[in-house]
Design brief:
six-stranded mixed sheet; 15 helices; 14 strands; six-stranded parallel sheet; DNA-binding; about 375 residues; homodimer; alpha/beta
DNA sequence: TAATTTTGAACAAACGATTGTTCAAATATA
DNA sequence: TATATTTGAACAATCGTTTGTTCAAAATTA
């Protein structure tokens, strides 16, 4: 193997013994490699990017360059490349709380898809705050991500509308029905209806609902199913039985306390909890009060978890396809990022079906 | 407000009405801003970076620039900046499985610390594979992250040693006792000892241990405590009671099956499970077999979860300070990245204490 | 008024890569 | 042999910032 160096040529033997070999080991950039091998940066760049032949770089030269790059354990600076190409091969993923297994599970699949497609992923936790959500978006834009997946807090949307004008964007979990941004979530109406219908068929007519954040799409869908089931069975909706205001354990705990405190005659016999975290809080409250499921209260919960079937009383749950949502979200984003398709791409929202798991937490009255 | 434009000056009124105002709204880069305001990129850069006065840029000029930047909703391209500054304000975080709530909880705090310190964070899931772990490291290096936090798979370390020579690095959860890379994890020996000691004090002498990946630091520490407790009570360690080979639900399930299948006389009366995921698998197996905790088996588990107290039988657990580990890890990384301190920084590993939660899953014999 | 100092901002190179274009040498053709 | 063509790689501009240096104009001093 021979390497050219300004007006000089040395053979491989000399090369290995020479200082150049040591230099090669230190080569970090195209410039370094150029200096050492004697070829220019453009030649090296083209070779290593696999377009050498197209630019008539000889097989011989290419071989030398590839060997040198291997020897140097060379890899491109993706920042510089992103700057030049105006494409960074990165995406952003914003979740309200990564420690919540719901979002962690989705993150797992988003990450896997991203990895598979050579994208790196910036994780942003918006800490259940729209302000942080906004600043996370700014952060991602400064880093010139190619696209963003957001699980929005769900109360404001203007900043997302603005974002969508500038960057490929997919919303997951929550979305804004009246706004034209692609989203993927689960269709919670149907199984909410079914599960409440089931409670009613077991003789329950006084059914409380512990909700999360009001007027978020998920909350609305679940309540829609709940209300429809009541209505179809001629049960008047009682606003006093719609309790709570956040998807938190604390909210579940407090709501349960409130329910426990109701006069026995008016006390609900069943509870429809809109998230697994809320349910854990409620269960904690009941446990502390010495109340049993389903003897004292029947309960059904949104969000299936690994432990749902293993709790003191195995829980009836509605499971969402978190993994599928993560996968689908990345694929939709990829479609947007793919400049070919982008032109006349008209994406809409996707509603995936949920799954019902009937277990022992419901008592027949 | 007046803006200079090559040999011309216009007042604010004209400006707003003019095309320049529209241009300003479109300004994305320093160059755009320079063209519009008439100042050079260096002047604008210095002003917006707060070092304008130091470089004798007049108050008047600075004010104009700042206003224009605000009007344009200007923000720097952090990739270009990172290229020039050789500091990207990004870190990488590699976990074996982000859908595992143990790592998700840590991620939550790592992210929070990073956000607080203006760092963006690349999330990499190594999928419990050393190969993926290695390629994740390569990915992060190509992106020129300022530092990396790794929760290693735990079997190989050479690539981490190599990495540590080039990039600030902190290991979390698992580490390599014989290798000099800073780490933060919990000291699992002590509470493992205590909890097994407790089992013994309740009359158990035949105690199985369902382990995770052999020869990982966490597994070793936990078994060390287990063995020491046995020894201190003159109970011979029986290798047949050390079962399993991964931190997975499947492993827990299979190990439990194996235990169930043992002849009654030799069957352990208690089980020490080395992770919550393993425990869930084991519980599933017991539930399917109609076996009860603690009637048929006493069980203690590593890793406290929100649901631990709410399971069919509230679990006795050893809780690790995941959040604190995340926070501490980032801080240690920050110290390494801080070039001032870096010089004579000699970091060692940190072992945080665990916490014991005694609950009903242990029967006195 | 002339010389000196201060002020204010422009100039230009660099970070590491990509890419359209140029251009000399080698080969083919007339 | 003279000309035309092909081959192979170099050259130079660019992406968006930062920063050491230069330099004219204004202000100060002698």
């Amino acid at each position: 193997m021979k390497f050219k160096r300004k007006n000089a040529t040395i053979n491989h033997y000399d090369f290995v013994l020479s200082q150049y070999y040591m230099e090669l080991k230190e080569a970090k950039t195209l410039k370094d490699l150029a200096k050492i091998t004697g070829f220019t940066e453009s030649t090296i760049s083209r070779t290593l990017n696999g377009i050498g032949t197209k630019y008539r770089i000889s097989k011989d030269t290419q071989k030398k360059i590839i060997e040198a790059a291997k020897e140097a354990d060379f890899s491109f600076n993706e920042n510089a490349r992103g700057l030049r190409l105006k494409k960074t091969l990165t995406i952003g993923f914003i979740v309200p709380d990564i420690s919540n297994s719901f979002f962690a599970k989705m993150a797992s699949l988003v990450e896997r898809e991203a990895r598979f497609h050579k994208y790196a992923i910036f994780l942003c936790d918006s800490d259940n705050s729209t302000e942080v959500e906004k600043s996370s978006i700014t952060l991602l834009q400064k880093r010139k991500v190619d696209g963003i997946i957001v699980c929005p807090i769900g109360l404001e949307s203007e900043h997302l509308v603005k974002l969508y004008k500038e960057t490929p964007l997919v919303l997951v979990d929550r979305y804004f029905p009246q706004i034209d941004i692609p989203f993927v979530t689960s269709n919670d109406v149907l199984d909410s209806y079914k599960v409440v219908q089931h409670l009613i068929s077991k003789g329950h007519r006084n059914i409380a609902c512990i909700q999360g954040v009001e007027h978020t799409s998920q909350n609305d869908m679940r309540i829609e199913g709940y209300k429809k089931a009541l209505k179809d069975n001629d049960i008047a909706f009682d606003p006093k039985l719609l309790i709570g205001n956040s998807f938190s354990e604390e909210n579940g705990y407090n709501a349960a306390q409130q329910i426990i405190g109701m006069p026995k005659t008016k006390r609900p016999t069943a509870i429809f909890s809109l998230s697994s975290i809320i349910t854990l809080g409620a269960l904690k409250s009941f446990t502390e009060a010495g109340l049993k499921i389903p003897e004292d209260f029947s309960i059904v919960s949104f969000d299936e978890q690994e432990y749902s079937a293993l709790l003191a009383t195995p829980l009836t749950t509605i499971g969402q396809p978190k993994e599928e949502m993560g996968t689908k979200a990345f694929k939709m984003l990829l479609d947007q990022m793919d400049s070919e398709k982008k032109k006349n791409l008209k994406q809409k929202g996707v509603l995936l079906p949920t799954q019902l798991n009937f277990r022992d937490s419901i008592k027949a009255l």
